Amino acid sequence: MNRLSLLISLFLCLAPLSIMGQDTVKRHVLQEVQVSSQSAPSETYTSTPTQVVTVEKMEQTGAVQLSDAVKQMNGVTIKDYGGVGGIKTMSARGLGSQFSSLIIDGVAVNDCQNGQIDLGRYLLGNSAYVSFSNAQHDAPLQSARAFAAGNVVMMETQCPSFREGRPFNLKVGMEGGSFHLYSPTLSWEHRITKKLSYSLWGNYITSKGNYPFTLYYTTSQQDSSSRERRENSKMWMATADANIFYDINPRHKITAKAHYMQSRHELPGPVIYYSTKNSEHSEDRLFFAQTKYSYTGSRVKAQAIVKYQLTDDLYEDTATASRTLNTYRQQEAYASGTVVYRPVEGLKLSLATDGAYNTLVSNLAKNNHVERVSSLTVLAVAYDNSWLSVSANGLATVAEEWTSSQLRQSYRRISPYVGFNVKPFRKVGLRLRYFFKENYRIPNFNEMYYYSITRELKPEKAMQHNVGVTWVMPRMKSRNEKVESRLQLVADAYYNRVSDKLIAIPVQNMFLWSMINLGRVDIWGVDAKADVDIAFSLCTLNIGGSYAYQNATDRTDPVSKTYGHQIPYTPRHSGGASLYVETPWVDFGYTAMMVGSRYYRQQNTEDTRLKPYCDQGLTLAHTFEFRNGSKLKLKGQVLNLFDVQYEIVRSYPMMGRNYRVSAVFEL
Questions:
Q1: How far apart are the C-alpha atoms of 83 and 209, rounded to whole Å?
Q2: Could you give all domains of the chain from N- to C-terminal order, each with its CATH number?
Q3: Contacts of 508 (CB under 8 A, 6+ apart)
Q4: Residue 192: Cβ within 10 Å count
Q5: How far apart are alpha carbons 544 and 521 in whole angstroms?
Q6: pLDDT tens, 185-197?
């Protein structure tokens, strides 16, 4: 703990220097629940459960990757193969990672090869907020893909804001951490005219990832063991992001984004008794360019989107005499249009339609060229006033795909949604909500044509029911108005039924998967969270807590040995706690994430059980403000505070206690 003590001492010594001459009795004021610089979704006014991580909370928790923000969401399960470069995917309420969609600036990111998004590929450095919604984002003006999702993660790029007389912003940052982690960042924002501005953002991250762990030679972990280091874990990733913001006039707006990511990851492989070495690696390149036009009128709102995406993936294993090298290139051309019409006050009618053309080319012997043409169309109606919000929509899915081996598949489906949010009492901040949604998920190319080469694989069909309650306590002030507090409570109960559920089980390594249809899975659960904000004259205090219960069991065949067993990698109990204190001298943050026992196979036995764990972290930060308006932000973190060894995926030990420090200069 010597390094932690040194870090605390450094902050306590330096912090007072920046506040000399400042007003140390300035009063902290709580922000409104719905206030955000870019209209982040509400957590209480929607019919679908929604959670938001703002840029302020990202800084408090030291979140770097998208997975760091998503794992703060209650009821979300993260699959993490360890280290900075490990693959990170998510699932929620037992639906699986392929049901979750990532939407960046209103445009969906697609992966037709494996259908799941690696959250470790996306960084938060220029994000305004990240939100997560079960079922769908509760808004009529969105793409048909957003309507089609089972769960939605939204990232919004920070729009530039400029000080008077200065048409530019410059930000330079450097982060370092344990096991040779280095990550420089550069950000530039420029206002060309009052209507036109752009931003450039770049990051490079590298790590050896050779963290220590204890290797146990028996499943009981009570007998012999040895101290080892993770091998074949080096990684690097470079990311560049360019954005254009053009406000033609108050009604017309155009935004454009170009994004490029390139990385190389050594794949450490599973730790199995005396085998800790591996010789595999992957290389990835991702590029997409997208443009969105939006129109806002008194009765009509509309948006149009065009996008091109290119993804190259390479997998290589040099262990065997016959070297294994697999390459994949997927491309997508995508267009979307949405129109919302308001005939009378409170009533909105909308039509959204998407079209996409996808190709996947590989060097595999069979089905090395796969193509898909798909169309999604949504008709939606919504009504809202001060105490009631009701919405319903129908989604039509049409898709055709074919391969170089003359295999053809066709898909057709209509899927409904209905939801409402009601405030029964005028003067009480209590709201009730409900939604029902049906989802239809087409198998991705990996599932259908590669490692599970079968034409019997069926699309997943999911039905979601949710009933919930939210309560926001009105602001309370002390008699002398020096203390202000607010309380928010959210609780939801849900039932999901998945037919022909597709389960991905890793085989050999984290790059290769095998797929099976389970038949039917029933998921019952409860999500609950509470947040308390208290503002004093010298500091603000935020306390949060969450709990999730999830019973996701196989209900396919009553005579099967796995009937009634929890599906793999789904904890029944999970939760979290957080404490953030902001003062003029130092900002302090504490987080804890608790995950109960899980099973890594379909059959639940003591041998297939993964132990529960609690991952805790500390953050210390301070911002030095200078007279010319520039800032210097210093931050230090201790992750996995008590050096707990645990596994999220079987035989992939996670990183123990590690440290990170960062400095960001803003001009």
A1: 6
A2: 2-521+531-666 (2.40.170.20)
A3: none
A4: 11
A5: 32
A6: 999 999 999 999 9
pLDDT of residue 503: 67
Q: Are 240 and 301 in contact (CB under 8 A)?
A: no
Residue ranges of the chain whose pLDDT lies below 70: 1-38, 82-83, 218-223, 274-275, 320-321, 451-455, 478-482, 503-515
DSSP class per residue in 180-236: TEEEEEEEEEEESSSSEEEEEEEEEEEE----EEEEESSTTSSS-EEEEE--S--EE
Specify the 3-state DSSP secondary structure of 121: helix
Per the CB < 8 A criterion, the answer to whether 373 and 345 are in contact is no
Contacts of residue 374, defined as CB under 8 A and 6 or more positions apart, other chains included, come to 354, 355, 356, 358, 397, 398, 399, 400, 442
Distance in angstroms (rounded) separating the CA atoms of residues 583 and 369: 58
C-alpha–C-alpha distance, residues 593 and 613, integer Å: 8
The answer to whether 55 touches 158, Cβ cutoff 8 Å, is: yes
* Rounded Cα gap, residues 667 and 654, in angstroms: 37
Question: Which position has the token pair 């203390």?
Answer: 483
pLDDT attached to residue 13: 38
- Three-state DSSP state, 155: strand
- Asked if 660 contacts 637 with a C-beta cutoff of 8 angstroms, the reply is yes
Measured CA to CA, the distance from residue 91 to residue 662 in angstroms comes to 30
- Output DSSP code: residue 448: I
Beta pairing, strands 100-104 & 151-157:
parallel
Q: What is the CA radius of gyration of the chain?
A: 25
CA-wise closest residue to 521 among 467, 564, 550, 572: 564
The CA distance from 236 to 83, in Å, is 12
